[in-house]
Amino acid sequence: MTYHNLRLCSFSITNCRAFCKKFYKSVAFLCLFFSFSSTSATSEQTIVIQQAAENYILTNIDWPPGGTLLAKAANIDSRIFVTDCPAPLKTSSSSTNPSASNITVLVECSEENWKLYVPVRLTRTGPQVTTTGPISRGQTISAQDLTINMVDLQRVRRQGFSNIEDIIGAKTKKNLRSGEVVESSDVCVVCRNETVTIKAQKSGMTITTKGTALTDGAHGEQIRVKNSKSNRIIEGRVTGIAEVTVVF
């Protein structure tokens, strides 16, 4: 074989190796592409998963009395591995706290052996007592000072009121702006050093007397009061405007 033929043969082998290398790289890329595409979630699949998570929240979380509950599932990465489930998707969560702003829902398909955790954002609205105008600190609240509005309950830092009658006659402990939600810490249904009616209940009988509140109190709170007749200090629960009930 001549020198020219040897060079030609060597050149052909080198080109062949380069061609094969490029060919295998192309095949590997195509295999990876089709493998990735076959396991990536479609938009229809992600929507079904999101709806399953949202329906779980709407079905299993307590709605605010007289209000609404909205559930919005987070976006799902389309690169996740899921398949069409031949059976209804199973949903569950370790939390059912109705006051939570976010709850994670487990969505799974046992038949296809996949599961996915989906964060869901909760928006709760409910009727709350709000002011119709500005109210000064120490002012006695009247019915004209209040109204009921539907508000985002996540924005209410403390317990509010859903019934205007609960705070008519109460006194404000701070200045309130027009349209502000009235929270339990903003008013005293029973105020410190105020004369109150003490109701003593035992075996179906009720005895009333007068006393002096030693601390502020809202509806349902336990406070200390001093009996005006006996000077005895007792604890009772606030049950109304300037009213404390003691159960023996």
What does this structure look like?
- Belongs to the FlgA family.
- Keywords: Bacterial flagellum biogenesis, Cell projection, Cilium, Flagellum, Periplasm, Signal.
- The chain has 248 residues and is an alpha+beta fold.
- It folds into three domains: 43-123, no CATH class; 126-188, Type Iii Antifreeze Protein Isoform Hplc 12; 195-247, SH3 type barrels.
- The protein contains two helices and twelve strands; from the N terminus they run ααββββββββββββ.
- The strands form three sheets. Strands 1, 2, 3, 4 and 5 form a five-stranded antiparallel sheet that branches.
- β9 (205-213) and β10 (222-227) form a beta hairpin.
- The longest helix has 37 residues, at 3-39.
- The chain starts with a helix and ends with a strand.
Indicate the proportion of strand residues.
Answer: 25-35%
Q: Uncertain regions: pLDDT < 50 for 5+ in a row?
A: 2-14, 19-38
Question: Tally the helices: what do you get?
Answer: 2
State the total count of DSSP E strands: 12
**Molecular shape:** elongated
Structural class: alpha+beta
Distance between the termini: 120 Å
Largest sheet: 5 strands, antiparallel
Main location: periplasm
Pfam families: ChapFlgA, ChapFlgA_N
InterPro entries: Flagellar_FlgA, FlgA_N, SAF, SAF_FlgA
Keywords: Bacterial flagellum biogenesis, Cell projection, Cilium, Flagellum, Periplasm, Signal
Q: Can I get a quick summary?
A:
The chain is of the alpha+beta class and about 250 residues long. The protein is about 20% helix and about 35% strand.
